[in-house]
Amino acid sequence: MSRTGVVVVTYNSEDVIGQCLDACAFLPAVVVDNASQDNTIEEVRKRPAVQLIANASNRGFAAAVNQGTAALGTEFVLLVNPDVTLQTGVTELETSCSQSGAAMATGKLLSISGSVQRGFSVRKLPTPAILAFEVLGLNRLFPWNWLNRSYRCLDFEFAAQAYVEQPPGAFLLFRREIWKRLGGFDEQFHPLWFEDVDFCKRARDLNYKCVYVPSVSAVHRGAHSIGKLDWNYRELCWYVSLLKYASKHFRRYAFRGLSAAVVLGSVFRVVTGMIQKRSLKPVYVYARVLRLAMVCMASGRMQEAGSLPGYSKALG
């Protein structure tokens, strides 16, 4: 019996899910579909060995991961995005994850061209300063600043095995036992973003390690499902999840400082967004982000996302 099972969360993934499942056909797999409106479910059903959980509504990435993991009885769970195609076996991930003190393992993510996805394959856990640089756009304007280089591990040596802080949820093997101890993925990060970062952070807080294994690799197309989401939806979700993460893990003064950076960054993005899109849509979006950040700055903690005017409507 295999020690590892695969969980794939899908949303309108008909064009990639078949290749993903075929590449990991040597492992038991569960697909959790978050109410796709294309032919994703039909593609999955062409592979009878794959267990399908078809949600009637979009329950979010974290909840879907928990559903899939609960459905598996394996010692290890390999979480892969539907646009990820395994290139190797996973035995060495299992071995590394079995080390004393280890909870997770990851491999090398490659682009379609075969180059390492540097800056995404491994990262450090975000600090208040890093997230402030992100929301202010400084990491995009000056990508080689020392904070960004450190956060995105731009000098990481991908040829050597190492301990890493935050592998992406796109390609992550974890011990089922640790998942239980952590209470699974935190479903407050709905519908997506920062749930994998939070999972890694909570494991690290319990002194568990994550091992990067260079001999295990997968091709990652990247931004598959996200690219199909409405721009309003993406922006609101990202900022709300970012503030939820910061509220959960940062001290009040740091959270207030980051909230202030979101306020300042939102003003800047309204201006640049209107120029780029030739539309008033950025005003609609960032006015809500700005209002939420101002409330967070005043209170020192994240308020309920549902209280943000227009947020629930934007998420459909």
What this model shows, in words?
The protein is α/β, with parallel strands linked by helices. The protein folds into two domains: 4-121 and 156-220, Spore Coat Polysaccharide Biosynthesis Protein SpsA, Chain A, CATH 3.90.550; 230-314, no CATH class. 42% of the residues lie in helices and 17% in strands. The chain contains 13 helices and nine strands. The protein has helices at residues 17-23, 40-45, 61-71, 91-97, 128-135, 138-141, 146-151, 176-181, 195-205, 231-249, 252-277, 281-299, 311-314, and strands at 4-10, 29-34, 51-55, 76-80, 84-86, 102-110, 162-164, 171-175, 209-220. Strands 1, 2, 3, 4, 5, 6, 7, 8 and 9 form a nine-stranded mixed sheet that branches. Helix 2 links the parallel strand 2 (29-34) and strand 3. It is globular and about 55 Å long. The N and C termini lie far apart (42 Å).
Question: What are the key terms here?
Answer:
316 residues, alpha/beta, Spore Coat Polysaccharide Biosynthesis Protein SpsA, Chain A, 2 domains, 9-stranded mixed β-sheet, disordered C terminus
Strand count, sense and barrel status of the largest sheet are:
9 strands, mixed
Q: Globular, elongated, flat, extended or rod-shaped: what is the shape?
A: globular
| Name of the CATH class of the largest domain | Alpha Beta
What amount of the residues lies in strands?
A: 15-25%
Question: How many helical elements?
Answer: 13
Run of helices and strands: EHEHEHEEHEHHHEEHHEHHHH
What is the percent of helical residues? 40-55%
The CATH topology name of the largest domain reads Spore Coat Polysaccharide Biosynthesis Protein SpsA, Chain A
Amino- and carboxy-terminal Cα gap: 42 Å
Number of E-type strands: 9
Radius of gyration: 19 Å
